[in-house]
Amino acid sequence: QVQLVESGGGLVQAGGSLRLSCVLSGGTISDYLMTWSRQAPGKEREFVATISGSGTTSRYADSVKGRFTISRDNARNTVTLQMSSLKPEDTAVYYCVAGGIYWGQGTRVTVSS
Questions:
Q1: Using CA atoms, how far apart are residues 101 and 113, in angstroms rounded to an integer?
Q2: Which of 26, 32, 69, 74, by CA, is between 20 and 30 Å from 56?
Q3: pLDDT for 25-55, tens place per residue?
C-alpha cells in the first residue's frame, strides 16, 4: 500500500522560505506523476505544482510560478517543494499526491504578515 508522508511545514513570516518534503513508501515514486496541492482555510483544495515521473517536466499554478520549485529524487523516493517569497495567501495545508490517487496527511504552512 502506497503511503505518503509530508514534512517541513511551519510558521514563517511573509517573504520567507520553507521547504516541504514528501516521502513515498510501499511503491516506487518514479512510477507516479507527483503533485503538490493545498487547501486554505475555508477554501477549496487547489493545484500548486506537478512534476513528471522522470522529473523533466513540471507545471505550476500561476499564483506560485516563479516563487515555488518542485523537484524529485527518485532514488530517495522523495519529492520536494521549495517555497520562497511566501505570502500570507500561501497559508494552507499542503498535500503531496501520487498519481492523483494517493494523498498524504498534509503539512500546515502558516505565513504571517
A1: 34
A2: 26
A3: 999 999 999 999 999 999 999 999 999 999 9
